[in-house]
Amino acid sequence: MKCSICGNKVEVTFLSKPIGTYVKDHKGKRHLVCNQCQKKFKSKQEMLKHL
Ligand SMILES: [Zn+2]
Fold first, then answer.
1. Which residues are placed with Cβ below 5 angstroms of ligand 1, an ion?
2. Could you tell me the distance, in angstroms and rounded to a whole number, from the CA of residue 28 to the centre of ligand 1?
3. Residue closest to 44 by CA, chosen among 2, 4, 1, 9
4. C-alpha separations of 32 from 17, 40, 50 in Å
5. Ligand 1 center to residue 20 CA distance, Å?
6. Ligand 1 mean position to 29 CA, how many Å?
7. 35 C-alpha to center of ligand 1: Å?
8. Is the pTM of this model over 0.85?
9. What's the rounded Cα separation, in Å, for the pair 11 and 27?
10. Domain count, the chain
């Protein structure tokens, strides 16, 4: 899986859970965001602006 913001590969845990977070856009579509981008953009609103 890839980060929706930077396009980098997102690692998954042994349970196939991505190490990152999901943000929902106004259409209700989920986007995967990696840890680095989470640190860079503090709020979900900020993340959505950069999708
Ligand atoms: Zn990223």
1. 3, 5-6, 34, 37
2. 20
3. 4
4. 11, 14, 12
5. 9
6. 17
7. 7
8. yes
9. 26
10. 1
Domain region containing 18: 1-51
CB contact at 8 A, 33 and 22: yes
For residues 43 and 9, give the distance between their C-alpha atoms in angstroms, rounded to a whole number: 21
Which tokens belong to 26? Answer: 């106004």
The values of phi and psi at residue 49, to 5°, are -65, -25
Measured in angstroms, how far is the CA atom of residue 24 from the centroid of ligand 1?
15
Tens-digit pLDDT profile for residues 10-36: 999 999 999 999 999 999 999 999 999
**Amino acid of residue 15:** L
* Locus of tokens 């991505």: 18
